[in-house]
Design goal:
Layout lengths: L4 H9 L3 H23 L2 H17 L10 H20 L20 H20 L2 H12 L4 H8 L3 H21 L7
Helix pairs in contact: 1-2, 2-3, 2-4, 3-4, 4-7, 6-8
């Protein structure tokens, strides 16, 4: 039976490198994909993932093992993403090379190309949103976290979260409709 996050945290605080490794392995992919969807760069997402776990490791003794670890970790990731977006200073163009490969959903290469173009378009529209809106929309609509989880991660109340999500979707729709999508050959 797998150990709980609380058990792993207590073991980490006791000096167990195996427990920390298990925490990293448990959450590494989710952290990476959250960062990737927010910053839209594989390299930056990898850096954020490493930095997040480094910060967790450095603060391991101050983390309350009786509280949920997941929201704490994601708050670190979200803050790192926000810091990166602020430093970046604006929207970044999305290139097809930066878009991760997705599985075939259709019977042929044309379907795969259309899916990639759609994903490219979604990311380019997301990149135009202000950071606070991009963050909530990515966490809710792309990553699928609940509003309660996002409120915990971002340390904002549920009313603020709902308002930001509403505004993010409104701005996304406006941009989506104003930016022409590439037409297939």
């Amino acid at each position: 039976m797998p150990r709980t996050d609380a058990e792993l945290l207590r073991d980490c605080q006791g000096g167990s490198p195996d427990a920390f490794r298990e925490l990293v392995e448990r959450y590494q992919q989710r952290v990476f994909w959250t960062a990737k969807n927010v910053v839209n760069s594989r390299d930056v997402a990898q850096d954020i993932t490493q930095d997040a776990f480094l910060r967790i490791h450095q603060a391991i003794h101050s983390i309350d093992a009786n509280r949920k670890f997941f929201p704490y970790l994601y708050q670190v990731v979200v803050n790192l993403c926000i810091d990166h977006l602020r430093k970046e200073g604006g929207a970044k163009k999305v290139s097809v090379e930066e878009i991760d490969d997705i599985g075939h959903r259709g019977p042929g290469p044309a379907d795969h190309a259309e899916t990639r173009e759609l994903k490219d378009h979604v990311h380019s529209v997301l990149a135009r949103l202000p950071a606070k809106y991009r963050m909530v929309m990515t966490l809710r609509d792309i990553q699928g976290y609940t509003c309660e989880e996002i409120s915990d991660m971002l340390k904002i109340n549920s009313a603020t979260l709902r308002w930001r999500l509403h505004m993010a979707r409104k701005y996304f729709k406006e941009i989506w409709e104003s930016v022409p999508r590439p037409t297939p050959p």
